[in-house]
Amino acid sequence: MPSHAQPLDPTEATARLAAEFIRVGKLFAALKQHAPAPMPGVDATHFAVLNNLADGSKRVSDLAGCIHVEVSTVSRQVSHLTALGVIAKEADPHDGRVAVLSLTDTGRAVVDRMTATRGAWLGRVLAGWTPEELARFAGDVTRFADDLEATRARTDAPADVEPRPH
Question: Is residue 92 part of a domain?
Fold first, then answer.
């Protein structure tokens, strides 16, 4: 893989990153439209909900916070995925007025298929990278995501409240 890393001053670097993020976002959006559905009625737009539930049961409001969307958006997706038998709703044992969501066995199978498909695709995209380049890139992306999340938490939190981890 040719190296594109040339020293840049911070202003040039952030301008280049901003342009590349726009480019990558457009490419992901275009590719998402052609992603195979892991089952009829489930597509890549549902992955954030399903992936977060793979980590454990959650309330709708907590799930919305984890994936950074409005509760109404998650509610629509949950209704759809529940009707398909991918997500189960149960009353919260601590507050019966609230539903707790979890993946069904079908939902776990869907997440496994989506994860395998995404992993195979990413493997093809990065096939020409050395193990060192992959490790460096993975570390840099993780660091960026952590910093982005921390910035968002500081922005979303009231001035007199410490941000809480997800």
Answer: yes
Q: How many domains does the chain have?
A: 1
- Using the structure block, give the residue that is written with the tokens 């707790």: 100
Give this prediction's pTM.
0.75
Q: Is residue 24 part of a domain?
A: yes
The Cα angle at residue 21 between residues 20 and 22, in degrees rounded to 5:
90
Please report which residue ranges of 71-130 form alpha helices under DSSP H: 71-83, 105-125
Write out pLDDT tens, residues 59-77: 999 999 989 899 999 999 9
Q: How far apart are CA 148 and CA 134, in angstroms?
A: 21
From residue 35, give the alpha-carbon distance in Å to each of 25, 47, 80.
15, 11, 19
d(CA 56, CA 106): 15
**Residue entry with tokens 């992955």:** 47
Domain for residue 52, yes or no? yes
- Domain-located, residue 61: yes
The residue type found at 160 is D
Which residues form the domain of 93?
11-127
- Strand 58-59 and strand 87-92: the pairing is unpaired
Task: Choose among 46, 26, 44, 23: nearest CA to 35.
Answer: 44
As a whole number of Å, the end-to-end CA separation of the chain is 36
